[in-house]
Amino acid sequence: MQQAHAATAEVVEGRELAKGNAGQHNRVRTQRRAALSRALDRGRQAAKDSVMRLTALWHHVHAIDRLQEAYDSLNHDAAPGVAGQTGAAYGEQLETNLRDLADRLKRGAYQAPPVARVSIPKADGRQRPIGKPTLEDKIVQRATVEVLNAVYEQELLGFSYGARPGRSPHHALDAVTVGIEKRHIHWVLDADIRGLYDAIAHEGLVKFVEHRIGDQRVVRHIRKWLKAGVLEDGQWRQQEEGTPQGGSASPLLAHLSLHYVFDLWAAPWRRRYARGDVIIVRYCDDCIVGFQDKDDAEQLLSDLRERFLRFHRALHPDKTRLIEFGRWASERRQRRGQGKPEPFDFLGLTHICSQTRTGKFTVRRTTVAKRLRQKLQEIKQLLRARMHWPIRQLGAWLKSGLTGHYRYYGVPRNMGRLRVFRECILRYWCQTLRRRSQRHRITWQRIDALATQWLPPPHILPPYPAQRLRVTTRGKSPVRSCRTPGSVRGGPGNWHPYRDRPKGGGKCMSPGHEGGPYQENVHSSVGQGTA
Question: In 10 A of CB 166, how many CB atoms?
């Protein structure tokens, strides 16, 4: 007990980097990560009180062990920011640099540098601005986000995904699928929130942060990142609103903004005004809301537009739509002579009303055709550029790309699109090898041998959504008194998002449950406290 307390005290007080053999790096890093997690236990316990403001957090950020853990988690091959400093150069004198950084953070002398901004083309022809923070700024942001996650994970609602540890896009996809298949859902609102990063009012965001964070050192550094500005084409420009996309803190800040603007408003709305079943799943700026009654869907869409106007937000007019979708959608539309139900796209997968071989309703998910074509064209151009690479090196690169594609898009009932993707890559590879010489000897027998060696066959990786969520019942079953995220009662923080009830029984309630102090008025005053 005393040893654990001493280890925690060392982390809190910011002890110097431990000296040891390089071969013990993995073991030391694992022990350090466990000690850092234990150091935040008091903050997690205090954050469970939904009216308490945490006033002692900054010492967790400038602890040298936490800064080193943030440095180790960075991609050292990423493009450098304004300072031009790479991860390898910074790591040559890592202990000295981190000690100097921790001292500046402790004294309040750290200044956030401007973010270098570049633009990349989007699928709709517009440009997406991407920021490139400096290496030290990435370290500080990563350490701050880790500390803030320990606080906000106790409050964020269960139907919000994205920018949260332990929650991936597959979790949100499964919540949508299970919600539509197991609940009485007849209409789906596919909502896209415009300007996730660009439309954030700075002062409003700081007020949201101050609802739970009473440590003004944390708030002051968040203000520094917001006011640092961007450097584009050699010209510095002040940002009046928004947070640069590309930094470690930007996803969390954008997620907090929507938590107060949308989540804490949508959960009470569903409980008070909805007459039928309603499911909500939000992943960053993409939101799927399922309804049993069309009137509920139209009313929420109207109220949501008014809500967003108050906070200078807006729904994308072209990407937001209300469609008829669900178990009885095909039958009802067929009686009206309207054809098949419209599909909707969510997180790269097209969701389609379908049936199993036994005639049971199911939601079939396939790769979005537009994304599949874009990815294949990108690989085709890269193969042209890397035409004269050795076959072994080219095959290893293609194998890595296929493995990553299967890892994300290898969901149940998407085997057809996976086979198409592999066959197209194989054909492009054959064309590329034959263009290397006018008198090639690349036969299909040799291509098949190369495909067997380097191109893994398509396979399904994630389990079926109902198996992952462990949902076995429909209707008002007493076993489902605590719903999974995305279900009718799944909005409040379910600490075990893929288990109907936590281990040991009890109710799945969190400090941010529906009806809490933040549900009615996010601008109401909150109590004081320390952690």
Answer: 8
